[in-house]
Design goal:
Elements (H helix, E strand, L loop, with lengths): L4 H25 L5 E7 L5 H4 L23 E5 L15 H7 L20 H9 L8 E5 L10 E3 L2 E2 L6 H11 L20 H7 L1 H16 L4 H23 L34 H17 L5 E6 L18 H6 L6 H23 L12 E7 L14 E4 L10 E4 L5 H11 L23
Helix pairs in contact: 1-6, 1-7, 1-8, 5-9, 7-8, 9-11
Length: 452
């Protein structure tokens, strides 16, 4: 057959038409799972140095300044309060801790040492999602026992504590992670699930790209300058796609944590003599637990995780060299004493840890976005002003776009709204139809927040 210009361009058009098809299948095959991560720290914050000023445009005050590089992926929410606390009797800490993530009262009314009367938001979502992962949820701590700040509950009256030992967590996760993260899969690992249709299609993408490139090169040798320019533009798109597809991390949820190309074994960086019980090493514990958490998500070992800084009473912050002395709990109560700047820097350390978590999540490429883009990360404390045990105006930061469901880069003021409504909103973002959460009183449940 004679190779005419019409025939050549017809072939070129066919090659070009393959590009959007490839792009569409890449997106379909690489759809990342949606995840919820919650980080909590104790003793609230210094609200005058935490609350953004102005309207919806997000400006970061002193205590949030370390988040500047990821500001466009944040929503800072002010004015949200734990109003359920006023229904509970007890000291300043037990009621605030029990109700922070459950938005519920005591399981035994009047008994401040009892568990919560309802499950915490993380456990509700983990049970609802029924993700095909090895762990429904992962609970990590930095510090010793949770004590008065028991925040996680799987059911009314049933606490969940998690682990404060990053080395033990690492060993557990290594036993659950897919072969991509380990030298050899443990003998107890279940056989991998058969590849899905999307995965089979994704495996053929390199062949399809090679075919497109070969066809473009064949046609290019027989056409004029104008047509070559058109073909070169298509070739550039092919090269761009090839580079992107070779570097992306696409999760494989296969009923046991198939993981992704970014599912790798992290080095925790813990020195000889390290012990998680040493409060002077909590900076090392925090960084190691963050690595464990991100590994668990990237290996699709879980899709719901919590990180609790449980030592609310006596962290030393020695690694900051701030000159702080005495009990941290007492220092918060006296407003920092003669070292307010030192107290501000200590509170800012939690911001640095939150930023470290977000940065690591944002480095995991999942095709159309990053792990952070496909997640919702909540950072919250049990108090607004810990000095007076106030549960009004809790510091709330939401990071990530949950796969495009949530606009970011904003300061959202919700004066007078309850954290019950915050958790209803989170459930709705995960496609749950709830109209309330936690305590059943209509006083605390006004419906979802307008996050947009």
């Amino acid at each position: 057959m004679r190779l005419t210009r019409r025939t050549l361009l017809k072939g070129a058009t066919g090659a070009a038409m393959a590009l959007p098809f490839l792009e569409a299948t890449a997106r379909a095959a690489g759809t990342a799972p949606l995840r919820l991560v919650i980080m909590t720290h104790g003793q609230g914050t210094m609200l005058e140095r935490w609350t953004p000023s102005g309207g919806a445009e997000l400006t970061l005050p002193q205590l949030l300044a370390p988040l500047a590089a990821l500001k466009h992926k944040l929503n800072v929410c002010s004015g949200i309060s734990n109003n359920v606390r006023k229904t509970m009797t007890g000291n300043g800490h037990n009621p605030a801790g029990r109700s922070l993530l459950s938005a519920h009262g005591f399981a035994v009314p009047g008994n401040e040492k009892s568990a919560s009367a309802g499950p915490s938001i993380d456990q509700v979502l983990a049970q609802r999602l029924k993700s095909p992962t090895a762990l429904p949820s992962l609970e990590l701590r930095v510090g010793g026992t949770v004590g008065e700040n028991q925040m996680l509950f799987s059911a009314p009256g049933v606490p969940v504590t998690g682990s404060h030992d990053p080395q033990a967590v690492w060993s557990k996760l290594m036993g659950l992670a897919p072969a991509a993260a380990t030298a050899a899969a443990p003998a107890s690992m279940p056989a991998p699930a058969p590849p899905t249709a999307a995965e089979r299609l994704r495996a053929k993408r390199p062949q399809m790209l090679d075919l497109v490139k070969a066809r473009l090169n064949e046609v290019r040798a027989h056409v004029g300058v104008e047509d070559r320019q058109r073909l070169d533009a298509h070739a550039a798109r092919v090269a761009e796609m090839e580079a992107t597809l070779s570097s992306t991390s696409l999760p494989r949820p296969n009923g046991g944590g198939g993981g992704s190309l970014m599912c790798t074994k992290p080095a925790l960086g813990l020195p000889a003599g390290y012990t998680p019980a040493n409060v002077q090493m909590e900076n090392l514990t925090a960084s190691a637990q963050i690595k464990n958490l991100v590994m668990a998500l990237s290996c699709d070992t879980t899709r719901v995780a919590t990180l609790q800084f449980s030592n609310y009473h006596a962290p030393t912050f020695d690694w900051l060299n701030l000159g702080l002395t005495g009990n941290w709990h007492d220092r918060v109560h006296n407003g920092g004493g003669n070292n307010k700047e030192g107290m501000a820097q200590a509170f800012t350390w939690y911001t640095h840890m939150f930023n470290e978590l977000l940065v690591q999540m944002d480095q995991v490429n999942e095709g159309d976005g990053t792990m952070l883009d496909n997640s919702l990360v909540l950072w919250i404390s049990e108090f607004g002003n810990g000095g007076v045990h106030s549960t009004a105006n809790l510091p709330v930061v939401l990071a990530g776009g949950l796969g495009g469901k949530l606009k970011t880069g904003r300061h959202l003021a919700f004066a007078g709204r309850s954290h019950n409504d915050l958790y209803t909103t989170i459930l709705n973002l995960f496609d749950q139809p709830d109209t309330s959460f936690g305590h059943p009183s209509a006083e605390f449940n006004k419906g979802p927040l307008a996050l947009g």
